[in-house]
Structures are given as structure tokens and as C-alpha cells.
Amino acid sequence: MIQIPISLQDLYRTLPSMDSLLALSGLSELQTEFGKTATKTALDQLLAEARTLIATDRRLPPWCDNLDALPGYLHDRLAQQHRLSLTPVWNLTGTLLHTNLGRAQQSEAAIDAVTSVMRYPTPLEFELHAGVRGHRDNTISNLMQQLTQAEQCCVVNNNAAAVLLMLSSVAAGKEVIVSRGELVEIGGAFRIPDIMRQAGCTLVEVGSTNRTHLRDYQEAITENTAAIMKVHTSNYHICGFTASVEEAQLAQLCREKGVLLISDLGSGSLTDLRRFGLNNEPTPQQMLADGVDLVSFSGDKLLGGPQSGLVVGKSQLIKKLQSHPLKRALRCDKMILAALEATLRHYLYPETLDKHLPIMAKLARTETELRSLGSTLQQRIQPHFEPHFSVGLVNSRTQVGSGAQPDTTLPSISLSFSAKGKLSLTQLEKHFKACERPVVGRLTNDQLLLDLRGADCALAIQAQLQRLGDAL
Ligand SMILES: *Cc1c(COP(=O)(O)O)cnc(C)c1O
């Protein structure tokens, strides 16, 4: 056979023109669905990619051989580009408050509150009845007064910001004493020593990693000491031969010496978690009752609200935080404040918390309930995954996540997928993530697990998994 050399120029000439592509049947439907501009941009991209392919590989892309299929191909590309990246997923990882998956799901009341302030003007900094200027943190501050007996509250973007603002406002240029057992790294670049430096404080470490005593703090206090800071070791646990000093004891020492006692509580649950079989977390209200001057905690961990950081404590100190220039940089917007207000209002009716706050509802699920959900799902899904995967039911453990309660887990039930044929679990995991509402599970050595404690809309999960199974 004679090989006819094709010149580059011939290849470029073979490439369809923009006008001929726009004239293809099916293109006008695309323009109606995605708009003329986006459709033309996609075609431009396609032609540019083709020119690159000609230059590098001296060949045309496959779509040139089958122009009838081009509108369909383009539709998939445009649909892909139009998909929001912050799309809903199912978090069946076995970690309820997953930082990478957006932590706490909001209550329906919080969702309504956010959408309405997004849609309409709202008196964010306006006292409607008095007709005077108000403060954006007032509502939250009043609620926190009721819920924690705090004199006032200051709200910022997250707890990291709360700690930074707290230290910058009450301890800049001075010494802050922290136990060596509490020099926490939360993740990312948030380490207590770094945040101290950033706030302009001098960190004074006392005690040892496993044991710190009252006298250690006592001996470290100088005329330059602004505060003693307690950091809740939320994401790890030191056990064995240990000692730390309770807040109540430290509060007494601080009062005698005229220094402040401040606390980074981390998760800061407002309710007793023992009803779920978890350990009790120290609450902000307990800290304040023990004599802590300022307590900071997250809004989107066990509190179950939007990403935010709250500082509660004495009026005269909160006023310092409110008037610090950093507060303006760290303040929350109306959407966060609306969601936070709606979340906190649930705490005024504690009997209904487990029903309204998704994180509480998930913690409250019983093993019996989960097992019955699991066996229904397993029976209905299993046949759809034959002959590639077997679908079983296994006992598993759910963790709270986001650094809360690192050593306690709750019993749960997981759907378990095991490979029986040529398809691997890694491939299955990819399929899960490519679903219309992606499913995020947990891959172990020889099983892909979907922890059902994190499941909502069980019927929708069932339908989606059945569709996926049929398409394998
Ligand atoms: C989670 C946590 C933080 C950081 O809180 P964010 O709300 O994520 O900024 C700070 N300190 C402690 C002890 C924490 O557990």
C-alpha cells in the first residue's frame, strides 16, 4: 500500500469552519439551552484543541470523523462546565462533621432564614423600632446571653478568627501563659504558637506535655502577663500519667493576680452529649460559671450552625473585641448571622433539638433504626450490582469529626461493597463520585463502605444506587 503523506496544511484545511459547525443540526438546541455565547466559546475551544492536536500529533480529533455526534458530545461538555462545584453530595464516610465536606448541615429554619435575607433587605445594623443604628451582633449576643448567661457575645468568621481577635484585643504586647500539653495544631497553619505571634503576644509555655500543675502557672505570672489561656485539646487526647488544672482553680488564681483567664473551647457544644453515648464536652456556659473571662468556640462543629466563631464573656472585654480594627475584617455577613440566629433559636426549645438540627438527628439515630434501614437498602440494591459486586451489611463506627471527641465513636451500620468480577472497588468509588449527587464513602482494604448514620433521603440514595448498578 502506498502511504500518501498528508501535509499539515491539508489537515488544517480539513478542519470544519466555525460557520459549518454552527449550521449542524442540533446546534440550535444547544444554543437555546446554554446560550449563544457559551456554545460558541465551547466550539472555539474544540477547534483550538484540534489545531493543537494537528500541530503536535499530525492528526485530527475523532469528532471530525463523525460530525453528527458532535452536538451530543458538546452537550456533555457544556453540561459538565455548567455544573456547580459546590453541589450536594452524600457524606457516608463515617465522619459526620467532615471539614472537607462542609461540616454541619443546617436546619430547615436556618436555610429559610438565609434564603430570605439573601432575597430581601434586612435590618442587619438597624434597630427597626427605635429607628436608630444597631449592631450586627446584637441578636446573637442576646441569644447567647439567654443560652450561656454570658454578658455579651462577639461573632466572627470562624473559631480561628475568634482566637486571633481575642488575643489581639486583650493581650497584644503582653505574655500569655499556656500549658505545654495544650499547644494544639488544629490543621492547616493554625497552631497556638503561630496564632500568638500573629496576635503580637509572647507565649509562655508552662508544665510538660503530660503534666501541668497550678504552681506552674503561678510561678510563670509576671507583671507582663495579660492572661492564662486554656486550649481544649479537642482533636487528641493525652492519657496515662497526666495532670492538668481545672478552669475553676485557674480562675481563682487569675483573680488573685489580676490577670485574665481565656479559653479556646474548639467545638463548644451547648448541650449535654451523653444522651448520644458520647463523652460530655465542656460547654461555654460551664466555663463562664467556672470563672473564665472569655470563651471562644466554633459555630459549625457540634453547635450545628454555619461556619462562624463566637466569643462569649464579660461586657467590658467583649467591647474591646468589638472595637478592635481586626473585628471589621473578621465580621460575619447577613447570611451567616441569619443562619446562626435560626440555629441558636432551636436551643431555646431543647426538647426539639434532635429533630431540627441535622447533626443531632444523626447522632440520635439508634442502632436498631440504622440496621432496619440498612437491611432494606441492602435487599433493594444488591440485585442491581450483580454480578460485579456483592452488597452486604456490616457493623461500623461513626466518628463526630472536626476534632470533636477524637476517642469516642458511635455504633453504626454500613453497606459494604466487595468486588466479585473484573471491576475493582477503586473503579466503583469513581462511579460513586460521578453520580448526579456524588456518594462519598470509605475505602478499606477489600470493601467500600457507606456508613448509613450520615445518610439522609434514603429513598433517593436507593434509587441512585440502583441506577448506577444497572449501568455498570
Ligand atoms: C476547630 C478548632 C479551632 C478552629 O476552629 P474553626 O472554626 O475551624 O476555625 C480552634 N481551636 C480548637 C481547639 C478547635 O477544636
From TrEMBL:
Organism: Ferrimonas aestuarii
NCBIfam families the record matches: selA
Record domain L-seryl-tRNA selenium transferase N-terminal: where: 12-51
Similarity comment: family membership: Belongs to the SelA family.
Example of a GO cellular component annotation carried by this entry: cytoplasm
Descriptive protein name: L-seryl-tRNA(Sec) selenium transferase
HAMAP family hit by this protein: SelA
Swiss-Prot/TrEMBL keywords: Cytoplasm, Protein biosynthesis, Pyridoxal phosphate, Selenium, Transferase
Subcellular location: Cytoplasm
GO BP: conversion of seryl-tRNAsec to selenocys-tRNAsec; selenocysteine incorporation
Chain positions found as N6-(pyridoxal phosphate)lysine: 301
Gene name as annotated: selA
PANTHER family given in the database record: L-SERYL-TRNA(SEC) SELENIUM TRANSFERASE
EC assignment: 2.9.1.1
InterPro entries reported for this sequence: PyrdxlP-dep_Trfase (IPR015424), PyrdxlP-dep_Trfase_major (IPR015421), SelA-like (IPR018319), SelA_trans (IPR004534), SelA_trans_N_dom (IPR025862)
